[in-house]
């Protein structure tokens, strides 16, 4: 992550106003309860009225946030301003009630954690840095919280230092976790949106094909009528060459339109039959042939004891998924890709081997995540193991497939094993 990324304020980074209002109400009523409990029931003497004034200001700001603002989402800068106020308000309360020795000092890190989850990195750094500075100030400057019977609580220096360090470590750790969690959530959301786009486009193409066939069928009757009428007109005209020539042109063009529409209808019927009857061997061969047209690498299909030659639906999910993994094998291989098909009454299995560099150890466990970064120079120079693999894996799993990735195959490169139970395919 570079500095430009860290300090930019993204326009799409927003915090839901209702979420922030709810969190602040929890904090405010928690403060009211804690202050009064300690003062009236534990009999600890501290400036309780001043504490109530500080809480009242927070109460009024939250009233404004809930009823005064008419927006649903708060922009990054606006959200961070409210969170900064919460840090300052809580730090004043802590100053009046013992500083970091107050057990509720841990709550001072909450606004930064909220920022790390919903807001930009820049806002999180500003809030986190401010919190650390305030923690240092509260360590050395505070109104001591007296114990019962007017005894002032005191702690050894090592204990004070330990509290300060633990709060700072907790702040950094939880903020980092929030940043990573939010980042991964955003990536997966984007990837799922891309997945939905792929599926929508595939089904849109299928729909267009069906509409074309329907149009061809509907236009056939009026074209036939035009042809019949034109021929009758030609008989009526007789030897008039001027009009006869035009009618012949009309008949020929009508015939041409009919032939085009017949081809469209025929093609659609053939595709529909193919969709419902294709076998894995035929599907794999079709995909392999498409790569052979653009690649000089050797792509071999081996059928190993294919006992269960069931016909499957040629779904966009299976086609896209298989194309993705075969395409990756072709891309990263040196010269050879081997695809093995094996099936019996219980299972159908496809193995995709290549003689490339294999899958690096640092990403073998991350295969299938939306965005992957590898230390391998060869993999960094080629795309294909990130979003595309995520989409392919997700699409195949939606069709009841199980996927297994291994670092090295018989050819020395990567190995991808895709399998289905025969029952799951026949029922899908």
Description of the molecule:
This protein has helices at residues 3-7, 17-41, 48-68, 76-96, 110-118, 121-140, 157-237, 241-277, 280-292, 316-332, 377-380, 387-398, 422-427; strands at 14-16, 73-75, 298-306, 336-343, 347-354, 402-406, 415-421. The relative contact order is 0.07. The protein folds into three domains: 3-154, no CATH class; 203-276; 280-427, Histidine kinase-like ATPase, C-terminal domain (Heat Shock Protein 90, 2-Layer Sandwich). The chain is elongated. The model is unreliable at 1-11, 268-275 and 380-384 (pLDDT under 50). With 428 residues, the chain is of the alpha+beta class.
| Number of continuous helical runs | 13
Overall tally of structural domains = 3
Protein structure class: alpha+beta
Overall shape: it is elongated
Flag low-confidence runs: 1-11, 268-275, 380-384
Q: In percent terms, what proportion of residues is strand?
A: 5-15%
Strand order of the largest sheet: 3-4-5-7-6
Cα end-to-end separation: 43 Å
Q: What is the share of helical residues? A: 55-70%
Order of helices and strands: HEHHEHHHHHHEHEEHHEEH
Number of strands: 7
Largest pleated sheet:
5 strands, mixed
Arithmetic mean pLDDT: 77
Radius of gyration, in Å, reads 35 Å
